[in-house]
Amino acid sequence: MADTPPGPEGPAESASSDQDAALTELGYKPGLKRTLGNFHTFAAGISYISILTGTFQLFYFGVSFGGPAYWWSWPMVFLGQLMVALCFCELAARFPVAGSVYNWSKHCGGPHVGWLAGWMMTVATMVSLAAVALAYQLTLPQISSVFQVIGDGTGKYDAAANAVLLGAILILFTTLVNAFGVKLMATINSGGVFIELIAAVALVVLLGVHITRGPSAIVETGGYGQGQSLGYLGAFLTASLASAYVMYGFDTASSLGEESIDPAHNAPRAILRALVASFLIGGLILLFALLAAPDLHAKELSVDGLQYVVKAALGHTIGVVVLWCVVIAITVCALSVQTAGLRLAFAMARDNNLPGGTKLARISPRFQTPVLATCLIGVVAVVILVVNINQPQIFSVVTSIAIVMIYVAYLLVTLPLLVQRLRGQWTTAPGSFSLGRFGIPVNILAVLWGAAMTVNLLWPRAAVYNATGPQHWYLRWGGVLFVGVVGVGGFLYYWFVQRRQTGVLAEHAVDDLPEPMAHGGP
After folding, report:
1. How far apart are CA 428 and CA 211, in angstroms?
2. If we measure between CA atoms, which residue out of 50, 88, 35, 93 comes closest to residue 332?
3. Is the pLDDT of residue 76 over 90?
4. Could you give the CA distance from residue 233 to residue 34 in angstroms, rounded to a whole number?
5. Backbone torsions φ then ψ of 369, nearest 5 degrees
6. What span, in angstroms and rounded, lies between the C-alpha atoms of 498 and 496?
7. What is the tens place of the pLDDT at every residue in 93-116?
8. Residues near 282 by Cβ (< 8 Å), separated by ≥ 6?
9. Which residues is 260 bridged to in the sheet?
10. What separation in angstroms does the CA of 113 have from each of 265, 339, 500?
11. Using CA atoms, how far apart are residues 19 and 259, in angstroms rounded to an integer?
12. How distant, in Å, are the alpha carbons of 31, 194, 231, 332, 413 from that of 49?
């Protein structure tokens, strides 16, 4: 690891040394390059959430099923995710180490729970990378028909096939950037986030200027929910997925703990800032878009979504400029997703908790990144895209499966943490972020929220998992089946094969620690 140079950087060097000491206490030698500051960690969290990517990718979905009143799912999801984020802040301060969800669940629930959470999150990351890459298709062809390479967009499979092509190109780019080192990744990511934040604020102002109706529009449910057993509530729960799909990934700020300066203090702040900023700016974009849309009953609203509103309300030229900013946001979002997945895979491989762990955890002497793990994540994400190349419902299915697995992984952190709190075994990091007496009630709410949204995400809705005919039971239950196979199958593999090999790899272990700390056996 390259140390921070002496001289003016003395305080940063001291903080780096302190965090290296915290890392060795967990049984690991420092190996990754610690260069990232406050904005870098904040940018990692907010680019994963990616206000512009999520709102532009999923606005059409929310409006299609819940109408304008679907907007209320945005603050609902924020409050639930805030409870989770507050728990994560304590964990980020207590364990400033790569692979946040995996290491948190391991220390709170034991090696078995940790492996399952890490496995679910690793698979979810690869599926998420594919899902984010699909967002290119929803934006680039609306900028120019040149980007509709396959067909003219009117064929049944044109959009899905073209989405795979554009997505594969994006994944190739993010894989190369992540392989070439954290500094290049952080530079591109921070620059992209800076542009995204400026564009998002400008979009709020521009849409605000073009408002044509009052706020009463977002409390009208119209005819949505007719024919459903739960009425509008059923429609709202379906539409709420559009918000649930956006506000996650804030833990990425702590996944870079071994490459950040003073992560025990910076990561909790970055997590909260990323979530709150995304809620405020994203909420205003959605609200003003609904109030500025030329016609809330226009078919384009539930087909082209926010892209239609931007071009219709702001004019073609300004609309195209905004859409190019969305393309930048999608790019850095995909970059951040792969970055987080890479750190997670590295953390698991370092504990020899993945097949081929020795090779996956190997850090390139030149780039100081685990290059093989980076390439593996990129290849699997492209394979996921190719498998779905002729699936018209590729957008909702791939996105839904990715998000539900992340919610499950989050539950495998907050639930063991709650058990530790109730047993009186949880201790926060001295002088760092702490919920104090609010710890237990916040943690309970985080668990209840996570469980409720997991059920909502997994519910076998034809609208989500089998949106186009023909109807098949295995497609409607696709979320449950996929998550079940990955979870149960993965854990059986761990129990009968992998757990016997678990233990910090010699090249990453601190030699003078007691055996139980240096090796995390079954």
Report:
1. 47
2. 50
3. yes
4. 48
5. -135, 155
6. 7
7. 888 877 889 989 998 998 899 999
8. 51, 54, 55, 74, 200, 246
9. 36
10. 26, 23, 15
11. 10
12. 28, 14, 31, 10, 19
Hey, what are 372's tokens?
Answer: 């093989």
Angle subtended by helix axes 316-350 and 371-387, to nearest 10: 120
d(CA 465, CA 262): 43
Residue indicated by tokens 């994560």: 88
Is the N-terminal amide bond of 470 cis, ω within 30° of 0?
yes
Q: Using CA atoms, how far apart are residues 204 and 208, in angstroms rounded to an integer? A: 6
Extents of the domains making up the chain: 34-497
Q: Output the pLDDT for position 516.
A: 40
- Choice between 305 and 475, residue whose per-residue pLDDT is larger: 305
pTM of the model: 0.84
Helices (H), 459-489: 462-465, 473-476, 478-484
Compute the average pLDDT of residues 465-483: 77
Which structure tokens are listed for 421?
Answer: 């709190």
- DSSP class of residue 488 equals I
The answer for residues whose C-beta is within 8 angstroms of residue 473's C-beta and 6 or more apart is none
Q: Is the dihedral of CA 450, 452, 453, 455 positive or negative?
A: positive
The pLDDT of residue 155 is 74
Q: At residue 482, what are phi and psi to the nearest 5 degrees? A: -65, -50
Place of tokens 């272990």: 509
Which alpha helices (H) appear in 351-424, and where do they start and end?
357-360, 371-387, 394-422
CA gyration radius for the chain?
22
d(CA 239, CA 59): 9
| Positive/negative CA dihedral, 440, 444, 449, 450 | positive
The CATH code belonging to domain 34-497 is 1.20.1740.10
Among 334, 346, 376, CA closest to 256: 346
Helix 51-66 to helix 394-422 angle, to the nearest 10 degrees?
100
